[in-house]
Specification:
Chain lengths: 172, 179
């Protein structure tokens, strides 16, 4: 499929930003690192083909990842429940703490953040990436990452306050 | 330390929303990123050496905290390529000039040693029949003849001044008449 040069640049930028997220998500689902990289490669190959039509890249990538991992497990073991495999804030929500999880997820999704800030939130909050590594991925300084992350977390806590949770300790 | 960030992390941990990745795995992920991108671009048929170079510069700038775009990285590659090509042309020219100079210098050095070697080889050097001090200069016949001629001419025409031609004839050692 032919793609204009400008779109290759945009794809490259998106790849460099989302690759650590998708691969780290895959590594937590698939034990073998080589298989994880192959799965990641497949996800991004489909991402490349459909790049022009995608609006919410992050959501699309997580959705495609779920499908590709499902196919992977299906080949290996048909009895695997894919929803159990994806017990993750970024992908789906399952048993226990459902309402709270939905609330936290809403707070993270509805918060008025940029794409970059969302990547920072996912990498640090859900994947425990260090500030330094996130800075390397996004081309920022450590201090900038730390500041942006603190602002995003503040926004989430403000959202929870609006929903009636004045203190997080109530949820802990 | 119970900052808002710590509380938020505790909240995510409680509701099993954190899936941490070890620092070693984080380093590996960053290491795999470029090589997997290269494989992907080859797979979709968009790979080129120029694209790879641009991406290397782009990721390097990001790594050191410079938020450059891919377009800026392309410009850097273009400027670097122009500088290298200009430098290589000048460098090649200077290099060839220097090499020619060295070759010429070597050739001139080789000529002098050859001449000296021809005259001073042990074979060419012959022992003298008599010691140097005892050898007395002996006039050759030609020298004797010319000196005799000069004396005769002076004696024949004492009054006349010697013309240049006569003087030349007296002085020359050979029998070939001057023109």
């Amino acid at each position: 499929m032919k793609r204009q040069k400008g779109n290759v640049d945009e794809f490259t930028r998106a790849y460099m930003e989302y690759y650590p997220l998708i691969l780290s998500a895959t590594l937590t689902k698939v034990s073998n690192s080589d298989d994880a990289r192959d799965i990641c490669q497949e996800v991004f190959a489909i991402f490349y083909d459909k790049f022009d039509t995608i609006e919410n890249k992050r959501a699309w990538l997580y959705g495609a990842l779920k499908n590709v991992v499902y196919r992977y497990y299906n080949k290996k073991d048909t009895s695997v429940d894919i929803d159990e495999v994806f017990d993750d804030i970024g992908l789906s929500f399952t048993n226990g703490f459902r309402d709270t999880r939905i609330l936290i997820r809403e707070a993270m999704d509805n918060n008025d953040v940029t794409e970059e800030e969302r990547v920072i939130l996912d990498l640090i909050a859900t994947r425990s990436f260090s500030y330094e590594n996130v800075a390397r991925i996004l081309g920022l300084t450590r201090r900038q990452v730390e500041y942006k992350y603190s602002q995003v977390v503040k926004g989430i806590l403000d959202y929870l306050k609006k929903k009636g949770i004045k203190d997080i300790a109530e949820l802990l | 330390m119970n900052t808002p960030i710590d509380q938020f992390h505790s909240l995510l941990d409680k509701y099993r929303m954190i899936h941490p990745v070890s620092p070693e795995t984080q380093e590996n992920i960053l290491k795999y990123r470029n090589s997997d991108y290269k494989k992907l671009m080859k797979k979709v048929g968009k790979y080129s050496a120029l694209l790879w170079l641009v991406v290397l510069i782009y990721t390097f700038l990001k790594k050191i905290g410079i938020q450059a775009t891919l377009l800026q990285s392309k410009i850097i590659v273009g400027v670097a390529a122009a500088a290298i090509s200009a430098g290589s042309v000048t460098g090649t020219y200077q290099g060839v000039k220097y090499v020619r100079k060295i070759i010429h210098r070597q050739e001139s050095k080789e000529e002098k040693p050859e001449k000296i070697e021809k005259t001073l080889t042990p074979e060419t050097i012959q022992p003298l029949s008599e010691p140097i001090n005892t050898v007395q200069p002996q006039k050759t016949d030609l020298i004797k003849q010319s000196s005799n001629k000069a004396v005769e001419k002076k004696e024949l025409s004492p009054g006349k001044k010697e013309t240049k031609k006569q003087k030349h004839d007296a002085d020359t050692l050979s029998d070939v008449p001057s023109l």
